[in-house]
Amino acid sequence: MINKERLTNKFISYVKIDTQSDPHSDSTPSTEKQWNLANKLVDELKAIGLQDVSIDENAYVMATLPANVPHDVPVIGFVSHFDTTPDFSGTNVNPQIIENYDGKDIILNKEKNIILSPDYFEDLEQYKGQTLITTDGTTLLGADDKAGITEIIMAMEYLVDNPEIPHGKIRICFTPDEEIGKGAHKFDVEKFGAKWAYTMDGSQIGELEYENFNAAQAIVRVEGKSVHPGYAKDKMVNSMYIAQDFINSLPRLETPEHTEGRQGFFHLSNIKGDVEETVMEYIIRDHDKTHFEARKQMMQDLVSDICSQYGRNCISIEIKDQYFNMREKVEPVMHIVDLAEKAMEEVDVKPIIKPIRGGTDGAQLSFMGLPCPNIFAGGHNFHGKYEYVPVESMQKATEVIIKLAELTAKKYE
Ligand SMILES: [Zn+2]
Q1: Per the UniProt record, which residue ranges are transmembrane (predicted)?
Q2: Mean of the per-residue pLDDT values for the chain?
Q3: In the CATH scheme, what is the code of domain 4-211+326-411?
Q4: What is the fold, at CATH topology level, of the domain defined by 214-323?
Q5: What pLDDT score was predicted for residue 396?
Q6: Residue range 208-212: average pLDDT?
Q7: pLDDT tens for each residue of 336-354
Q8: 147 Cα to the center of ligand 1, angstroms
Q9: Which residues contribute to the annotated binding site for Zn(2+)?
């Protein structure tokens, strides 16, 4: 159905363009090189024949596929990001194509002995017989999220070429800087003008997500008193011991390494200290809003307890919310998830619905007034040299987009 060779070539042409974002930059996009792909995408969208193709001063690319039915259909949108993570090199990506994968080890790089093995990455087994695109072991691949971009463009092209498939007005947007948490920051929701949208930014085939963590960051500061150790009796206060009390008073099993599914956690991500001062950085995560609030309260209470124990303001905490679970924004419009589920089933993809143990741009967009569940883009092992994507998964994701457009138009007939 979806031309495999054309899809593959398009994807490869995108991943060869370095679009790594930079968390230390204040500009948008955070790196100049992201313009290279953004501008190319503008040209391609125009060439396909989409309308209102635009790129703004922050490199957000938008376009419209006009409706081809006479009745009113809500405008829906598809979103993906063109930057790649700052965590791993995206320079000189040299994709390898493995046709008819035999289910065995894949040598990514002979010289450096880098092997992509199903012994370690069991997910590989389900793609036996398929076409895989991998790295050469020296960079990431960038399927996150250039697979999503490829799928959206292929789907729009298909709908233009096959006007007998009914659909309402469709808006698409490609964003910069998702990987540094800013993909939604300068997203003009009003200009986008969709009733709801989907990010094509999930991992393996079938993934459908509309729940993510509630997230906050906490900085805990402990103040000690440094005195010459030889003359310290009843005078020295060692901030590191107080910090240790604080750490040990939080539930040890409610940490990332002991939790899964919908279980929340406290995560001590950094600690720096000497006698005089210790600073701890925590992140707090929970899908449940009530539990999330209780976790923050628990940390506050602990700080008060320790202060009263030492009889002075020796410890303080600063908590900042980061993002919230989109579920509360999606549940009132649950039909948008149902439609995605149905679209998957109609193209023989088994939906895998699970809560994200992290955040997405869709979560931020949902709180900006654009409910936005996340659909698989097909890749695995994001943000590193073992990243790969089966071409068949990208074909299926493209079909899901097309089917979603069709089902939405039919639902409102
Ligand atoms: Zn992504």
Answers
A1: none
A2: 97
A3: 3.40.630.10
A4: Alpha-Beta Plaits (3.30.70)
A5: 98
A6: 97
A7: 999 999 999 999 999 999 9
A8: 9
A9: 81, 144, 179, 201, 383
